[in-house]
Specification:
mainly alpha
Length: 302
């Protein structure tokens, strides 16, 4: 089995566990956010707005590596076939033209393999960073819930009730410190993602230019169709969550039932955009093939 397939399978296996952590944090952070407000609300907002599954990152990286491997294998196979052409079995202008075109195609395949591998490396870096980030957010959620349990327990006793507000004050101090750490994490994530976006753009420009120089002109439109659809879907889902999640500024005035509803639904959002898009795109033959993702039946690496 290829390295890319191994990474893809690992990401596929880990994805449900990551999703469980993400969903649990989104639900569990809601009660302390409502009870304590202020800085705990900021922590909840960060959890609700950072819903990317690291397992999906690893799956995407694995798919890119598989693509890189297939391009490399194709280049090597073509090179082996080209080496079989000798003056003894084929010579003349046609033979030389074949060798020249073969070299060009090999160069294109190798360049695409390198580009795919570099993109995969970026996705792996993001996946690792997100794994560390979600481990931290899980710890944050557990700490806030521990404060809430102590807070409720204190209020449950007549003697201990006087100490409840001290627990709340301590929680807010800790939460303020954690918010600063979360913002540091987010700054690092932004730096990594921005660097990856810039590198991907550079790789794309180099790929366009190199492929064109080797007689394979590629337009941005041909490549961007499917990815543009995915980008718009992602932005739409993010906008929906930002609009419908339990916002930090409204935690204090949001009822418990309403807050729970926001916390449970689609990890802080309702998932309407993603659900409707999936329903519309899956099996809809009216959508041009270039603008939709291939189905599992259409995917083949052979």
């Amino acid at each position: 089995m290829s390295m890319g397939q191994d990474i893809f399978d690992s990401g596929d296996a880990m994805s449900p566990y990551y999703d469980g952590i993400i969903s649990s944090c989104a639900v569990a952070i809601m009660p302390p956010a409502i009870a304590f407000g202020l800085s705990v609300q900021a922590l909840a907002t960060s959890i609700y707005l950072n819903q990317c599954n690291p397992g999906d990152m690893f799956k995407a990286a694995g798919a890119w590596i598989v693509l890189s491997e297939k391009n490399t294998e194709a280049a090597e196979a073509l090179a082996a076939q080209t080496e079989r052409v000798t003056d003894e079995n084929w010579k003349g202008s046609d033979a030389e033209a074949f060798k020249g075109n073969s070299d060009n195609v090999q160069s294109q395949l190798k360049e695409l393999a390198i580009a795919a591998f570099l993109i995969a490396a970026q996705l792996i870096a993001l996946g690792i960073a997100l794994t560390v980030y979600w481990a931290f957010l899980l710890a944050v959620t557990l700490v806030m819930d521990a404060f809430l349990v102590a807070y409720i327990a204190a209020y449950a006793g007549v003697i201990t009730a006087v100490g409840a507000e001290a627990i709340r004050a301590s929680c807010l101090v800790v939460a303020t410190s954690l918010v600063a750490t979360v913002k540091s994490f987010e700054a690092v994530m932004f730096s990594i993602s921005s660097g990856c976006a810039a590198l991907t753009a550079l790789i794309s420009v180099i790929t366009f230019a190199y492929q064109d120089s080797k007689g394979n002109p590629v337009t941005i439109e041909e490549i961007a169709k499917g990815s543009l659809t995915n980008q718009l879907l992602g932005l739409g889902t993010f906008a929906e969550r930002a609009l419908l999640m339990t916002p930090g500024g409204r935690h204090a005035t949001t009822g418990a039932a309403e807050g729970f509803k926001h916390g449970v639904n689609s990890q802080g959002g309702f998932g309407i955009v993603d659900s409707l898009a999936s329903e519309y795109y899956d099996g809809n033959e009216d959508i041009p093939e270039d603008y939709r993702d291939p189905t599992d039946e259409e995917l083949s690496w052979t």
